Amino acid sequence: MKWILFFGALIGLSICGRKRFFGDQVFRINVRNGDEISKLSQLVNSDNLKLNVWKSPSTFGRPMDVLVPSVSLQPVKSFLKSQGLEYSVTIEDLQIYREMDSIAGDFPELASRVKIGHSFENRPMYVLKFSTAEGRRRRPAIWLNAGIHSREWISQATAIWTARKIVSDYGKDPAITSILEKMDIFLLPVANPDGYVYTQTQNRLWRKTRSHNPGSPCVGADPNRNWNASFAGEGASDNPCSEVYHGPHANSEVEVKSVVDFIQEHGDFKCFIDLHSYSQLLMYPYGYTVKKAADADELDKVARCAAKALASLSGTTYQVGPTCTTVYPASGSSIDWAYDNGIKYAFTFELRDTGHYGFLLPANQIIPTAEETWLGLKTIMEHVRDNLY
Amino acid sequence: MPPSRRPPPASRPGGPRPGVLLAPLLLLALQGVAAAAPAGAGGPEDTPGLQDAELQRGLLQQAARAALHFFNFRAGSPSALRVLAAVLEGRARVNPKKECQVDLVFTTDHYNPEAGEERLGKCSARVFFRNQKPRPAINVTCTRLIEKNKRQQEDYLLYTHMKQLKTPLDIVSIPDSHGHIDPSLRPIWDLAFLGSSYVMWEKTTQFLHYYMAQISSVNQWKTNDDAVDFDYTVLLHEFSTQEIIPCRIHLVWYPGKPLKVKYHCQELQMPEEASGTEESSAVAPTELNNS
């Protein structure tokens, strides 16, 4: 599978031994007696399933953890069922978190992994901070947000590729080097970890968070309608079953609140970019009103420049404009909040494609998408660098 | 909706195709306040022309998509499916009943582009949206398409491939989570898209538009000497509400014959459920060759 090649390339030398890929699951299998142990050995030793034992039970009554590649999920489940073996599925470590750790480990002078909070289901929210500042001096900063809508997998993938790109190109590419001389970059590749896990294990097309809505059978709120910018206005729903349910109140979603708190505490963000898919659009505020933003003309120019740079790589064309009229009215969105809170350079990317594959973009388009998007991101960041306020 | 006027060419919806000219949206922006005052929202700080132009562009794209779904369905040919390339020009008229007639010209690409193939088809259409009611009335003609005999040949080839397929009932989804479609299953996807085109046309309004996200199950796949009998569930993605709508579709297809489709969609939010049946009439869309 192409995703395997992609992450193989990404992870490379930094992880020895086991490798994990999107869609793989860790099965925690209960072993109660010797008979069950031998049944399990049968399973684990079968060549074609390519299972990987992570934790072997030292005694009965302790579970065995086995990494099951996504292609083997069906046969393993059938086997366990037929043998009466009890199991549960756990995701111990998101692959992306391990890659983030690896990047921070490989480039400790430049990158660090920072925990900014946790999700509803208590998963950590990690950002990568890229900084060349001495000590703890605060610099004007850029926020790159990804994966807020969990099914938009090209977003998380582009983000983690970009993280690796930043550290690899620093000191070699004059653009990113000069940007990092003046500013810090914070990158949140998985802004909605619970949703992301859910798309891997239960429902590939899940969009929202996984928070519970009292009194409703429906789960989750749209984290990109939950920000405090015309919250519960037009372009959001008060129905918990809706894909654009705004939540009970602004920042009710802990994933959103974590980012808001961090950014406000920092106090010196100049740029906020949110990565989504799909449609190939590059947009700026507002989503919650057709009223023109005060800086719309400048933002429009910057966005057009960025779209042009993006297109220069493979000819991928993006439409540019304010959110409300380019895609649809949307209240409580991240970039509207950022903009109304003094972060002037606020943009949303809707990445590839334009509907042929939609959310299910084939793996062989990840790197081309990330590469062209990088050109667009750099254009914006260079403009911010040259127009600090 | 503004009274009829001719806006400059709208920009291309996009897609990774090098060398295609992008009609500048900037032109629309510069047009400024030439148009009559737009209906609805906006205070003195607006640039009515720009906002108006954006809405116009959105409506034209909406109309183009609807026209293409209808065209694909009527053509009944899984090897000759078209997608929207760019809207070239168009105008909209609204009547007192808030029904909206859109006349437009747009270009199309092959749904499955082959290497080196750059033939853009061109279509003109009249699309009549019935004030938020679905199933817009459509007249559409397209040019520069695959010649009829060649198309039927390719359909027949596809049909023979389908006959050779082992019954794919154990397939859980197409594509898989990573967007992968096994080449041997591609004909299933194309045929499913053809059937879904009918459904998507019927459900489109001036505000709602759909994409086919995934085939979530194949319930029945029967091929015999005079038809492919295909019963499947597809997940449609409605863009403005972001909802995923499962639709059970049953189609019967044979190369050169009109497509028969029955469907039933689960409308999770709305009280009514949408379903429909169509037996495509024998009238094929008129094709003008090499115009």
From TrEMBL, chain A:
Q: What one GO molecular function would you report for this record? A: metallocarboxypeptidase activity
Q: Where is the active site?
A: E350
Which reaction(s) does its UniProt entry say it catalyses? leukotriene C4 + H2O = leukotriene F4 + glycine; Release of a C-terminal amino acid, but little or no action with -Asp, -Glu, -Arg, -Lys or -Pro
Please give the chief subcellular localization of this protein: secreted
The UniProt record lists the EC number as 3.4.17.1
Q: Which InterPro entries match?
A: CARBOXYPEPT_ZN_1, CARBOXYPEPT_ZN_2, CPA_M14_CPD, M14A-like_propep, M14A_act_pep, Peptidase_M14
Q: Where is the signal peptide?
A: 1-16
Supply the alphabetized keyword list. Answer: Carboxypeptidase, Disulfide bond, Hydrolase, Metal-binding, Metalloprotease, Protease, Secreted, Signal, Zinc
CDD domains registered for this protein in UniProt: M14_CPA
**Residue ranges of the Peptidase M14 domain?**
87-384
Q: Does the keyword Cytoplasm apply?
A: no
Q: Report quaternary structure and partners.
A: Monomer. May form a complex with proelastase 2.
Q: What's this protein's function?
A: Carboxypeptidase that catalyzes the release of a C-terminal amino acid, but has little or no action with -Asp, -Glu, -Arg, -Lys or -Pro. Catalyzes the conversion of leukotriene C4 to leukotriene F4 via the hydrolysis of an amide bond.
Q: What is this protein called?
A: Carboxypeptidase A1
From TrEMBL, chain B:
Question: Region (Disordered): which ranges?
Answer: 272-291
Domain annotation Cystatin LXN-type: ranges:
42-150, 170-273
Q: Where is the signal peptide?
A: 1-36
Which key words are in the record?
A: Protease inhibitor, Receptor, Repeat, Signal
Q: Which domain of life is it from?
A: Eukaryota
Q: Which GO terms describe its cellular component?
A: extracellular space
Q: Name one GO molecular function term.
A: metalloendopeptidase inhibitor activity
Q: Which residues form a coiled coil?
A: none
Family designation? Belongs to the protease inhibitor I47 (latexin) family.
Protein name per its UniProtKB record: Retinoic acid receptor responder protein 1
* Organism annotation: Odobenus rosmarus divergens
